[in-house]
Amino acid sequence: MKVFHTEAEWRPIWASIFKENKKIGFIPTMGALHQGHLDLVAKSIASMDITLVSIFVNPTQFNSSDDFKNYPQTLESDLAQLEAAGAAYVFVPSVTTLYPQPTRLRFDFGDLEQVLEGKFRPGHFNGVGLVVAKLFNLIQPNRAFFGQKDLQQVAVIKRLVQDLSFTLSIEVVPTRREKDGLAMSSRNMRLKPEERQQALLLYQQLSQAKKRLLTGDLWTTVLADTEAAFSNAANTKLEYFALLHPETFEIFDSFTQDAPRSICIAAYVGQVRLIDNLPIIL
Ligand code: AMP
């Protein structure tokens, strides 16, 4: 496995990969890797000739400086995990490599900016769009792998690829969970032991809501019960619990079984903001 830090190092490697007509699978990450990330790596290894992972804690997608400062960084263990998983290349750029000057270009993802992560984290998707577009241009992969865990991010990236005519495909990989249902996330490392227990409420509410909707309960009742469950739970704060179309992110206030639907949730457990989602109708 080769670790590199600059575009200059990658360019000749890319040229020889291209000459041999080998296909590059790319997994952008912010490090602090867990099995969810490694699922993406495994998908790429299974279907592509060369697998490249990037590790970069992207400052432009954080709208809270505390969140950025406290984001876990575990490079040594990340590299050991990627080596064991069989990744061929790891790109670990510095901030000045990706942002040689402050970027004045701004992305506006329209309706996707108005709801959920777009609404609660102003500027977040601009930062995601910037870094992913830069990485796609630098690496020139044939396919990029993203987790369903960040469902709205997937919608944003697909729009970015279409609108900027990137010639690559996007593959979405299901959410990897802990045994008790908690979605794996780098931010879980920041949970204190009692918070790790409290964090189960997100998945519990998602799966309960799914069961109830599919057996005929009204969305308004389900939503009110989830809001009450969070109000009654210590140390948690619900930001949103929304029923929506998983691609357009149109939000609904009643449930029908005849179109794709997912529920997305964001909540604070102590100081840590967690997100999760569950498909209800595929
Ligand atoms: P991050 O390092 O959090 O930016 O995540 C990098 C990629 O891994 C993104 O495409 C995420 O959606 C994906 N990912 C994060 N957590 C999970 C998970 N639990 N299961 C599957 N994919 C995940």
Per CATH, the class of the largest domain reads Alpha Beta
The hetero compounds bound to this protein are:
adenosine monophosphate
Radius of gyration: 19 Å
CATH-assigned fold name of the largest domain: Rossmann fold
In terms of structural class, how would the helical and strand content be classed? alpha/beta
| Integer count of domains | 2
Strand order of the largest sheet: 1-4-3-2-5-6
Largest sheet: 6 strands, parallel
Give the name of the CATH architecture of the largest domain. Answer: 3-Layer(aba) Sandwich
Helical percent range?
Answer: 40-55%
Low-confidence stretches: none
The best one-word shape is globular
DSSP, total strands: 10
Calculate the terminal CA-CA distance, rounded to whole Å: 37 Å
Query: Counting H and I runs of at least 4 residues, what is the number of helices?
Result: 12
Average residue pLDDT: 98
H/E order of the elements? EHEHEHHEHHHHEHEHHHEEEE
CATH superfamily of the largest domain: HUPs
Beta-strand percent range:
15-25%
Descriptive notes:
This protein is an alpha/beta fold. It folds into two domains: 172 residues, HUPs (Rossmann fold); 90 residues, Pantoate--beta-alanine Ligase, Chain: A,domain 2, CATH 3.30.1300.10. The chain is 42% helix and 21% strand. It has a six-stranded parallel beta sheet, with helices on both faces. The protein is globular. The chain starts with a strand and ends with a strand. The mean pLDDT is 98. Adenosine monophosphate (AMP) binds next to helix 2 and strand 5. Adenosine monophosphate binds next to helix 2 and strand 5.
